[in-house]
Design brief:
This is MFS transporter. Keywords: Membrane, Transmembrane, Transmembrane helix. By secondary structure, the chain is mostly helical.
């Protein structure tokens, strides 16, 4: 009886890389876009700066 070889790599390894890179890009852009909306109030409280100064 001949043993079948088990494939340890996917048929299209580039597809997994592209999908993962796409997800990382979406999360990174989302994080950088909304970070000031999340952190602006604590920055105003801690520094005493006006909201106009913090938001630009």
């Amino acid at each position: 009886m001949e043993r079948q070889r088990v494939k340890n790599h996917p048929e299209k390894p580039g597809v997994i890389s592209i999908v993962l890179l796409g997800l990382v890009q979406i999360l990174s852009w989302g994080g950088s876009f909304y970070i000031m909306a999340v952190l602006a109030a604590p920055v105003v409280r801690e520094t005493g700066w006006s909201q106009q100064w913090v938001y630009g």
